[in-house]
Specification:
- Two copies of one chain form a homodimer.
- Chain A is α/β, with parallel strands linked by helices.
- The first copy, chain A, has helices at about 20-25, 30, 50-65, 80-90, 120-130, 155-165, 180-190, 215-220, 235-245, 280-290, 295-310, 315; strands spanning about 5, 10-15, 35-40, 70, 70-75, 95-100, 130-135, 175, 200-205, 250, 320-330, 335-340, 340-345, 350-360.
- In chain A, the strands form four sheets. In chain A, strands 5-6-7-8-9-10 form a six-stranded parallel beta sheet. Chain A has a three-stranded antiparallel beta sheet with strand order 1-11-14, with helices on one face.
- In chain A, strand 8 (about 175), helix 7 and strand 9 form a beta-alpha-beta unit.
- The first copy, chain A, is globular and about 50 Å long.
- Chains A and B meet through helix 8 of A and helix 8 of B.
């Protein structure tokens, strides 16, 4: 039986919600095998003040004190350079998430990616302070003549990423939950001049579910519907190739996004999001195993993300006494997890998994 | 207020189901504005015997005696040249529907479009007797390496249509519920040598809902999910252009395919099909109106289909005393139609429509 020490693991894109849902799923960051997670700010209302960051962090920490929660702001006109500078200096935030208006859950407060210039004063401070810009990379289709749809929206967004990197070469930018071969190619291209030891400023997260799904798998299965949607075989192949490559700009961000099951069982307006937190490490390990790349697994699920976020010893110290171990042992994904009335159906509910995780003292 | 006499209308692709569902929706062929409909054979079990045809026709006729139901067989190994010949001579069937295995509702008894040769003896009789081959034009993806998905499945099927037409140039073939610009182009190409008055052997039906939907409209709305799925803006444009063109190879086939609403409100295995029967003529008229092509509406909804099916005076006689009139009058699509426990939510439920239909004596 094989066992692998993964050290301190990182999921750089989680949605931990609020209220009863948060109480249900926040502990599953750890039970799914993750030490450190980067928390998305798309609550209602979105997180745009220092006090909201402090309150939300306390709320999550009270639920799951053994987990490290890295916090973020929601990019909006409410943010100021002074606020970002202050929160960065105090170590309260690690990044700012940019949602194009209207593309996913609670994104109605989002921005127009055709015109980032209004945020350039913010990006200047972020670049200086090492605060990451997390991009939901989909271009919204406003009018029919734009010919934008959920399949090409990510590819149509890529010129905006290229321009941002050109205008702010030292700003750390992550293209979140990449789903297309085009996005993977661009991230590689923008890093093609990097040599071993160079600072990397363009990264990409890849989810667990996008390593499994194509369009056919969600079309008649709302449980697998998320934004950006899973695309085609060629895209899935590109994502698997990128994730398992060991390249330092690709790392894990689950985009685990739970919704109560009754919001998935509807004939109109299905909520976008796949919940993977409770088995996140095991889902991904199985792909690495299948493609004989398990030797690169720790890079993807731990080292690359921690390095990109430049997490200091103070943050890592909390986890130095323990390690996540990946153990080969058959188990099943739960059919449902519940907290009172809140029921969430996980990705691949009821399916067999090959791996479990265990936390062990060093 | 404008009024248009549509004469005898035809919907050349309907699913009228069985039992309580059939009792609910069969009368809506007429209330939706249709005189003559072509009935698909994908019951459980599929219709493959003379007695099944007779029974199903009687069952439908008992429910809605004013409507003409044109009957079909389900292409399978159970059919013989002798059976087809006999049923054709007696006027019992007008066509045979081919379902590729596994692509849509009750298609598990379907065929492999890579190998139609086993059915060539049937096609020979059909060609001779004027029996139509109705194709569900999607290539099933068996293995990942086939790179077939719900977006390219129709385009990947088109070479099979080309080969069938080449091998049986006089066999009447309809590519049903076309959804792509590629399919529209091929139907035009295969008819490019036709002159006014020539017999046409390649036709295509176009649904109401594919004139409205693209992928974004069904992705989070299972009520709009059908097979083949609605594709992209360019495809919708091509379908609207074809339908409104007046070209004789394009005609109406609603593919109205009701499912009980509880089979649409599920998080896995949503049933494929959009129910449009109750307002079918009005949905389509609105598109012709929007694109200033109402002068071609009667060709699409009446003349082209009746001509392609070569319906004789005996069949048409039943409808000579009455006409369907299209009347400009605002109305609303019902939120739901129901028969006891069976509830069906129509396409565009609750939306405003610009037209109604009336039946008037000549």
């Amino acid at each position: 039986m094989s066992e692998i020490n993964l050290g301190i693991t990182a999921d750089m894109h989680v949605h931990l919600r609020d209220g009863a849902m948060s109480k249900l799923i926040t502990p599953t960051v750890r039970s799914g095998g993750i030490s450190i997670c980067y928390v998305m700010p798309n609550l209602v209302p979105p997180i745009t003040t220092k006090q909201q960051v402090i309150n939300y962090h306390k709320q999550l920490n009270d639920i799951a004190p053994e987990t490290t929660f890295l916090m973020s702001f929601y990019l909006s006109k409410d943010l100021t350079p002074e606020l970002i500078s202050e929160c960065a200096d105090e170590g309260l935030i690690h990044g700012i998430k940019c949602y194009p208006a209207g593309v996913t859950t609670n994104s109605k407060y989002g921005v127009d990616p055709n015109d980032f210039s209004q945020f350039y004063p913010l990006f200047e401070v972020m670049e200086k302070k090492g605060i990451i810009l997390n991009l939901h990379g989909e271009k919204p289709g406003i009018e029919e003549k734009d010919e934008i749809n959920i399949i090409n929206a990510e590819s149509k967004f890529l010129p905006a990423l290229r321009k941002l990197h050109s205008d702010f070469p030292k700003l750390k930018i992550i293209l979140e939950h990449t789903t297309t071969s085009e996005a993977i190619e661009l991230v590689r291209e923008l890093n093609s001049d990097k040599k071993e030891g160079d600072d990397i400023t363009i990264g990409a997260t890849i989810t667990a579910h996008h390593l499994y799904l194509i369009i056919d798998n969600w079309a008649s299965n709302p449980i697998n519907y998320c934004k950006p949607v899973a695309k085609f075989h060629k895209d899935k192949k590109a994502l698997i190739d990128a994730a398992t490559s060991g390249e330092p700009w690709f790392f894990f961000g689950s985009d685990s996004a739970p919704h109560p099951i009754h919001k998935k069982q509807v004939h109109v307006d299905v909520c976008a999001g796949v919940y993977t937190q409770c088995n996140s490490v095991a889902y991904v390990a199985e792909i690495f195993d299948k493609y004989n790349k398990i030797e690169n697994f720790k890079k993807f699920i731990s080292d690359n993300g921690i390095k990109f976020y430049d997490l200091n010893e103070k943050i890592l110290a909390k986890h130095k006494g323990e390690s996540v171990w990946l153990i080969e042992r058959e188990n099943k994904v739960p059919e449902v997890i519940a907290n009172g009335d809140v029921e969430v159906v996980p990705f691949k509910a009821g399916d067999e998994l090959k791996y479990i995780v265990e936390w062990r003292k060093n």
